[in-house]
Amino acid sequence: MGTWTGDTLGTVQEMMNEKKTELVEGFKYQFPILNRVSKVVRKEAYNGKYVIVPMHVSGGMNASPRGETDNVVTPLPDTFIEERIQLSEIMGSIGLTQDEMDYAVKSGGSAVGNLIDIKKNGALQDAKYKLNLFFAGDGTGKLARIASVTTHDASSATYVAGNTYADSGIPGTSRLKVGMLVDIYTVAGIGATDAWTIKVSGARVTSVANATTFSVAYSSHVDVAANDFVFIHNSVNVGSDTYLAGYKGSNGLWDIVNSNTTTGTTLAHEYASADNYNGSCRGATFQNVTRATYPQLNALIRTAAEWASGTKGTATTCDLSVINDTIRMIDEEGGASGLGGGQVTAIYMNGKTRDWMARLAKVDGNAFVNVDSGKIVPGLYIESYRTSTGRIIPIIPMNTLPDGVIMLGDERDLMLFEPESIDWYRGINGQLLFPVPGARNLTFEAWVRWKGMLAARRCDNWARIEDIDVTQ
Question: Rg of the chain over CA atoms, in angstroms?
């Protein structure tokens, strides 16, 4: 493996020597889906290379009327299939040179501790951020679609992202962060015989200027063109024949809460065709099973074309009756397949959509509270949703959902296989910080690691509501 060359040593030395106050960390992320999944989703035992999930496909529904002397009807067999799930692994690293550590100690006894803490916290933040993206997305690692190239030279480029929220729920540069490593591909399609061309590998995002413009730095590249796609580094598995062999990241809610009619046939999700709107780019196969064959694997997808006779992709005025209807479809009508038998346990939306719901609830319910003290405290507050049957469902903030999209469903259907939770890999003699393997230059590294997969027993107890106009 290549050796780590350290931060710019002069900068580190100056920082250690001149520091008068606590250092401000460069980034702090929130991980709503990772935190929620870790707390409420059932942890499953796992041994081996694959996870085998048995799914009950059909039962022997043979009950029928019987006369006094009639024979009892002959038993019918139940049918089962096996879903096969391969686990994903995420790893990151930090590095220190001996010179950095020596200088830091000479500059002050606690300085090296501060430096290591900053690096450790950053690595953990990064691993959690990537895992949060995977849990929220479709598991492909897709980050953006290039609409145009602004500048391109030997070591850097600036691009304009053309994706909207109808591209698998990812608007513009919303998932790109400064410092991320990304790959850029020219994509022929998402089938097993579609050839992909790597344009940029391991580029570092150097700026995210606005909602659509970002820049990267790289050591080598092939010129990127419009409709190339940006992915989390190393998340795509392309074989030696350049054909797509799959994706390396964990599955996420955008693929679990999906249906056969929105599986997507290409990554370039535009509004032109029904199956190219907001679908999962993992395609028609879910957990190694053809989704179209089994109703249990299809969630309820409600666009404006369905709940308001509107147009897919066009923000449409919505009221709470749409949410009530969707909850009833799952709680009382068996979900998308009619066979679900679950109940909605959580409703996911981003902050702007939650604020829309709070405003709407105030108008619809005409709720108010008298304040006898004379103090005036402005604002609206909402943390749960009361169904038409009186059940209280928590509202979970999910900052990776776009405006006007709500996910809701039975979290008891989700499974988390996690033989290795996010933690530090212990190297030689169990040490966290160890000499770089194969290096002789007094460089030390530490590796952060996660191994697992988010999966679902069934998807029909889940729904996604889209195209809500949250400005009303």
Answer: 25
Summarize the confidence of residues 77-94 as an average pLDDT: 84
Residues 6+ apart with CB under 8 A from 326: 300, 302, 408, 463, 465
If one counts every other C-beta atom within 10 angstroms of the C-beta of residue 89, the result is 14
CA atoms of 399 and 31, how far apart (whole Å): 8
Question: For 173-182, 225-234, 358-367, 417-426, which range has the lowest pLDDT when averaged over its residues?
Answer: 358-367
Average pLDDT over residues 32-50: 79
* Token couple for 333: 């009508």
Percent of all residues in the chain with a pLDDT value above 70, rounded to a whole number: 83
HSE on the CB side for 307, CA within 13 Å? 27
Distances (CA, A) of 76 to 61, 79, 340: 7, 10, 21
Phi, psi at residue 211, to the nearest 5°? -70, -15
Q: What pLDDT band is residue 2 in, cutting at 50, 70 and 90?
A: very low
In this predicted structure, the answer to whether residue 359 has a pLDDT above a threshold of 80 is: yes
- Residue 30, helix vs strand vs coil: coil
Handedness of CA 249, 254, 259, 261 (dihedral sign): negative
Task: Determine whether 195 is exposed, middle or buried from the number of CB atoms within 10 Å of its CB (0-12, 13-18, 19+).
Answer: middle
Quick one: which of 298, 294, 288 has its CA closest to 259? 298
pLDDT at 264: 57
Q: In this model, does residue 8 exceed pLDDT 70? A: no
Ranges of beta strands (E only) in 188-292 are 196-208, 213-217, 229-232, 236-238, 244-247, 285-286, 289-290
Q: Exposed/middle/buried for 390, CB within 10 Å: 0-12, 13-18, 19+? A: exposed
Cα–Cα distance for residue pair 211/165, rounded to 1 Å: 12
Residue 439 CA to residue 100 CA, distance in Å, equals 17
Question: Tens of pLDDT along 250-282?
Answer: 999 999 999 887 655 566 544 344 456 777 888
How far is residue 138's CA from residue 255's CA, in Å, rounded to a whole number? 4
Cα separations (Å) of 355 from 43, 303, 350, 351?
A: 32, 20, 9, 6
CA–CA separation, 313 and 52 (whole Å): 37
Integer CA distances (angstroms), 252 to 63, 67, 147, 243, 370, in order: 39, 52, 26, 23, 44
- The pLDDT score that the predictor gives to residue 368 is 57
Residue closest to 40 by CA, chosen among 255, 346, 251, 354: 346
Q: What is the pLDDT of residue 114?
A: 66
Q: 200 with 222: CB under 8 angstroms?
A: yes
